[in-house]
Amino acid sequence: MVESQNIEYKSNWRDEFLKWTCGFANATGGRIFLGLDNTGEIIGVTDSEKLLEDIPNKVRDTLGILVDVNLHETDKGDYIEIVVEPYPYPVNYKGQYHYRSGSTKQELKGAALDKFMLQKKGKRWDGVPVPHVSVSDLRQETINFFKKRGIKSQRISEDVLTDSNEHLLDNLQLIENNYLKRAAILLFHPDPEKFVSGAYIKIGYFKSDVDLIFQEEVHGNLIEQIEKTIDLLFSKYIKAIISYEGINRIETFEYPKDAVREGLLNSAAHKDYSEGTPIQISVYDDKIIIWNEGQLPENWTVEDLLRKHPSKPYTPDIANALFRSGYIESWGRGTLNMIKECLAAGLPEPRYYYDMSGFWVEFRKEIYNEEYLKSIGLNSRQIKGIIYLKEKGRISNNEYQHLNNCSRNTASNDLSKMVKEHLIVPSGQRGAGAFYTLNKIAQ
Fold first, then answer.
1. Of 162, 159, 158, 183, which is closest to residue 172 (Cα–Cα)?
2. 395 Cα distance to chain centroid
3. Do 51 and 69 form a contact (C-beta atoms < 8 A)?
4. Is the pLDDT of residue 98 over 90?
5. 3-state secondary structure (DSSP) of residue 280
6. What is the domain class of 7-122 according to CATH?
7. How many Å apart are CA 310 and CA 330, to the nearest integer?
8. Average pLDDT of 168-183?
9. Residues 6 or more apart from 171 whose CB is under 8 A from it?
10. CA proximity to 281, closest of 292, 270, 294, 268
11. pLDDT digits (tens, 9 = 90+) for 286-338
């Protein structure tokens, strides 16, 4: 076994390893092995009998918890296993709170410590009550808009029209002990940034990662931000192709509106608002990236999002209100719906990414069209070859020659340039059986 989230190897005991014990207790539990090297090979431990007595006492006296300490005897030497259970309450080492993350130990401070303490108490950041703000401070227009959306989606009864704002917010579980929760302020206050730094959306249009053409910011409460951002994206940033059916004008946008809206709503429902960084939307000629400083549920990976999964929003109070208004689903289908909408529009599946910096979704255009291929400098022969590839699935050098009435050298040069541009990939075969296909990664 290698070191992991739940396993740590140490050659011998040192009292500073109480911090590791603390970290395991505050996370999902784990085991510390004494007498093993970094690869897990047994090297033996000294004073095993003394350690069997000292370690449980030190853990109990310093951390206030109990651990199992087991001795294992082998031909290579003795080693000790310390079994640490996860604890439902915060465990501290001399006033410090440590946490096991991956194969590392981290001391929790600042916002990270606040989130940890809340979660151990069964709370989320958006569920914390806020003093010195009342229901009368909220924007009435937004509350009215919320009610109408909720009734239209049939997730709120029409009786809500005669209810007081206090009753509505209480039913949405946005009031605790007569205080509004952070979620209520983010959703309905005219200026939530007075209370939460970075509670807005940035949009930028980029020619490249370092070439920003123009940008703007969307402020206000979350419901206003969602509506304004969608309007802004589809009126200024995303082009529409105009066509006609008889006398009826039809606009077909480069990206399906429902998929982009879903991506934005997922960012709003899963963002870690405690970090003070706005949602960022980067629009390029061939893609849109929606990023937020969010987190996946513990032990989840991006692959979990690509199949049916339960709904576990990072900010459940915000997500519940967005669900009641008809904005989002509550069954964990958001990522699957985005995939469905993009495929129905003839676009590549959206890509999802997650690392320590946050979570983002990338919507991509169908780049194998004449307009885009011209914009990146392909000549008429190459464009004709790409269109042929889309229809047939593959093309050989000989087919390219016949298609364009050109020489073998011209065909080879054209195809090589498209390979370098990552538009097509060679089959790897040589001679008469060689052919090229579209680059699936670029799609």
1. 183
2. 38
3. yes
4. yes
5. strand
6. alpha beta
7. 8
8. 93
9. 163
10. 292
11. 899 999 998 888 778 888 888 888 888 889 999 999 999 988 876 678 889 99
At 39 the pLDDT is 86
Give Cα 381 distance to the centre of its chain: 41
The amino acid sitting at 131 is: P
Which CATH number applies to 370-438: 3.40.640.10, 3.90.1170.40, 1.10.10.10, 3.40.449.10? 1.10.10.10
At 83, which helix (H) or strand (E)? strand 77-84
Distances (CA, A) of 259 to 80, 283, 359: 53, 15, 16
Please tell me whether residue 377 adopts helix, strand or coil conformation: coil
CATH of domain 201-364: 3.30.565.60
Query: Where do we find the tokens 């001679």?
Result: 431
Strand ranges of the sheet holding 179-181, from the earlier edge strand across to the other edge:
129-130, 179-181, 175-176
How many C-beta atoms lie closer than 10 Å to residue 379's C-beta? 13
Name the pLDDT band for 439 (thresholds 50, 70, 90).
confident
Phi–psi pair at 259, nearest 5 degrees: -70, -45
